[in-house]
Amino acid sequence: xxxxxQAFPAGSVEIECxxxxxxxxxxxxxxxxxxxxDSGLGxxxxxxxxLPGATSERSRRESTRGRIGGRTHExxxxxxxxxxxxxxxxxxxxxxxxxxxxxxxxDGGTRTASVTGGWVVLQLALDALYARGELAEPLAxxxxxxxxxxxxxxxxxxxxxxxxxxAAAVDMNVVVVGDETPxxxxxxxxxxxxxxxxxxxxxxxxxxxxxxxxLREAQLATLHRARSAxx
Length: 231
Prior knowledge:
The chain contains 6 helices and 9 strands, in the order ββββαααβαββαββα.
């Protein structure tokens, strides 16, 4: 992960997982949506898009189609609710943070990379708010990471690429919050070719937990470098 890739957002990072690369940026907006006003609570939401050249064949920008596709809407909601699971919205106050996730190159796992990178830029945005005096005290997120797992050729695989995902009998996206006592924010699993049993499910979840632990280490190392650069 490489931070500071954009000058204007409160936090930005490019996350690379294999051949998948996602640019994540967090922007702070004053106020909250109308339905949230006078609640004393902040808001965190996400937007997701894929650059036309992110895949082997150019994909049209959704803006030229006049509407956001169902897949994009689903991924945006996943990223947003995952990030909200890691933050104390009451401590944030009536401030909105928008996390933009733009896929530069797609080779599987773009939504999980967006969650993992999104956590980093959200924390950087909170650091910026505190540095500007807009938060009374530092606000730390709960640990949060996401990864894909699956069963390919009868064996469990972590962080599937496009070829592995296409061949997977089972594929699953897992979002985990917390450290000492991890909890699941999201478990999206599908038996693409055949049903899977409880033992296989437990094995995939254990693999995902181990993967998320490694991702958390990378997140913390990235934050440390970013904070040291501005200290």
